[in-house]
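Exercise 7. Predict the joint structure of the components listed below.
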Amino acid sequence: MTTTELETPETIPALTPPSVELVDRALRDLDYEDRLVGYKMTPSAGNDRANLYSLPQAIVFLLGTRWDSPMLTPGFKGAINWVDLNAFANWLRDAVGDAPLASAVEEHVLPLDSYYAQVQTLSRVLGMRMDQYREVRGVVEQEADEAETTEDAG
Amino acid sequence: MAQGGYVGKILYVNLTDGTTEIIPTADYEQWGGGHGIGSALFFDRVKDKTVDGFHPDNLITFMTGPMSGTLAPSASGRTEITGIGVTQYPVGWFTRSNFGGRFAGMLKFAGFDGISIQGKAEKPVWINIVNDSVTIEDAAGLWGLNTHETQEEIWDIVTGQPDVREWWGIGGSRDGGRTTQKPAVVTIGPAGENLARNACVLHDSGNGGGQCGFGAVMGSKNLKAISAIGTGSVPVADPAALMELRTEIKERFGFNPDAPSLETPVPGVQLYGILNAQPGYGTLLWPPMAEGAQPQGCMGCFKNCRMNHANGYANGDICVEGLYWMASSDQNENMAATTLLDQMGLNVYDVMAHSYMLELYKQGILGPGKEIDTDLPFDKYDTYEFIESYTKAIAYREGIGDDLAEGITRAAVKWGRYEQDTATGLLNRPQWGFMEHYDPRLEVEWSYGSLFGDRDINEHGVNWHVHWMPLVTAAVGQDPLVSAEELVNLIAESTGVGDPDGWDYSVDGIYSDAKLKAVSWHRHYSRFFIQSALFCDWAWPMLVNYNAGDDHTGATPDYEIRLLNAVTGKDFTYEQAMEIGRRIWNIDRAIWVLQGRHRDMEVFQGYVYDVPTAAPYFLPIKNAEGEWVFDINVGRTLDRERFEDVKSRFYELEGWDPATGWPTRDALAALDLAFVADELEADGKLGS
Amino acid sequence: MADIDKNATDVAANSGSGVSRREFLTGVGGAGVGLVLGGALIKGFFLPDEVFAVPASGGYLLVDTKKCAGCASCMLACSLAHSGECNLSLSRIQVLSDPFGPFGETESLVQEQCRQCTYPACVDACPTGAMHADEKTGVRMVDPAKCIGCERCVNACPFTPSRVQWNPAEKHAQKCDLCIDTPYMTEDGGPGGQQACVAVCPTKAITFVEEIPMQSDAGYQVNLREGMSAWATLALPQGDDGEYTGAAGANNPLAGH
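Solution:
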């Protein structure tokens, strides 16, 4: 079996950690006007427009829920879930509000040759950023828990 | 040579008076089978062709083909339905639908090539066919059951089979025949009973005849189900030749599951299934699950594109129904939604419009107390609760489901949104109220064929190669399996059209005379081979082969003809078969004209002309330098004026009057359809 | 015709290729409890060794029901090759599908073929020698000219559905002969030749073997997927527990959000 050799970057430098405000803003539900439009391309049904109303929804659309194995995941069903990744980067900056992430996508993902290679690398970029989101949120939640505990104790 | 293929009898049932009649198949064999016979029976037996689909006089025919129930690969399992449809807008044209499984074979083993049904029963009934015995049974105990429950109930009623593995004897004597099989049942669910215009007919787990609403037509006749079980034979004129053809086709064009010649180049990315015919089509719809699955096929298939799953959901569902609703992060729920759809008996392509409704909801137009008032929980769109309540609302006509059961197009008309939303493409219904399938601005044999016809054509045989092959290979960063130039030459050769420009999808190419010849070929080929001889649309035509290394020569047209002749003992040539296809296409056209079809009606909805394509859409084009390349074709629309010119030239090519689109006497007479010309003339609708 | 000498007293001398029940049980003893040869447990148990010995069949069909797609092509090919027409009821191999059955459950897909039993009850039951083991190949088959239509063979088959069936058109019993008598197939059939069902099966779920396969009361232990990397590439399970191991594990990127 021939296997596609992917020309993907070996390392992707870490992004500056986001602020709590950035994370909260980036994870919100967007208005209809701010939606991202993708296309689900399937053999049985052709191109079907998909409206994406939040960053988490876009991530699931692009990468599925199997983070380590994009395009092989519940919801993909042998489809190519396509988003114009230029538009995606702009959307990250303008609608979602995560400029560093947008820049990282532009720098590391857009130059790659095939959509498959782009999505593979995108999963690494987004994975790294989501870890950072999680960390920031985790700290916030921990502080909140501590505050609650303190209050209770008082 | 011996004769074979047909079993000799077509069953006619008048539900109004409960009588039956046997029509000799020989009277109609000139039409090939399937759709051709359905059209001819309709023309002969329905005096007023303008009857509404719900009128008792509407005659619906379930027809098999000569190869149904034989070993002919991917040409054995399908049943064609014809009659007046109820989904299309603004007119329910005389139309067709088609489903796979084992109903066609079982009907022939019982001794019938088809069933033609007219009238309306006084109360719910089902038709019970056990070998030669035909009875019309009371369906009081079945009415209200879902499609799966109905079948299980009928299996039990017919065979009373206590042990699923035991031989079941018919007629009490061993010479009556014995079988281990379950009766093959085609049925409607609650949606059909409630006359939902988007109701399908369903057979076994996931074989639906969806488009055009034949489930509702059955419901209007108070016909819940048709069951067939038989122990007889389908005669084969040259058995040894059929056996050899089968193994030859398997070796040369089939997928070897133990040692494939072409596998997906990226492990885990299951997109090659449609090209190399992997069993299960390589998890085309459903990704691998921890619990496992196995391939599942229609009778006699050599590809087996579906799967049965460990969770028991979505068994045998491979087509659009598998895309019904995918909003849950729990795959079991997505699959359960597909099974629910099958059980309610709804056509996915119409009721998939929940995504359109979600857009209206997000825009604040639809929702509780909104302009379009509904309490369906669109705020919980990604929960099973949503899709369950939505699906059942349509099947049972509850709340807004009553609007939706008229079909999304009629619902949008009622809500005052149809013109506006089809102008912007928010509601992408290019023609006759049907969902956009493949892009009508680009893949024009699909859109022209649909508009000059009666529905969404739903014929993938060209599409797999011109669109999917370059898209899939590009997406994974591979060279196309076949270059654009080789591809168009292969197709031109295989179809017999000869001119590769017929598959040039460039800005100019889609209006060329060569393209119109390709569109015409597609209509005639499909009407005969796919819809009448009942070769499966997902397997045939085989225009290009990816399973034999560098030899990409397809099976078409050589093998279709060899299979037909081996089974029937007739002496078809490809050219004769194509002429039968042209004849069927023309009798259909005449029926549409009698129903009111005119050139002026054959226009697409606004977005096709005005909204440019936004996503890459791979198709071969001949560029300015005269080189063939695969282009992504972004930013394309269909030009109104140039399309009007296409109409004039296409009508002339088909022998129809360019001013009206009506067939002329000369053209009809040349097809031995003078009797059709007479009826058009009597109605003042003969082209000149 | 090599009709079976049911009264043979010297098994070893009578049949070089035969296998006595005792020999067989000894041979298989190490393979584990519950593993027996086709028909032996049900019929052979009640017979003294010396009264019932039939030469071993020259081949066997194995069917992997977890690889089978239920398309019934094997059935159509079987009746076509033997009878010259397509007829599920005349097929010597029977596929029984429950369209709604979940993958992996026994009754969801049952494929039943003659097991060419070591101790063939059908042969034993036949009063005329019509049901016999072929002299050359050992394959258990029917000589239609000798069949009197008593159906004792049909009823004697210990399996359900009976692997012997009545052919109502030609008025005789029939069963799988591994395609020895296939007037409508160009290729030679039988052991060493082509079996119609094997030749047409699109998923290669049926295979022909010369060695007698192990089986339990539930059927043959057949897995034609194991070791087939291509099957795993199709994202279909190779193991008999049905588990698919080819995909990477789940890891939800949004966990925690």
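Discussion. Chain C touches chain A through eleven residues (CB under 8 Å).
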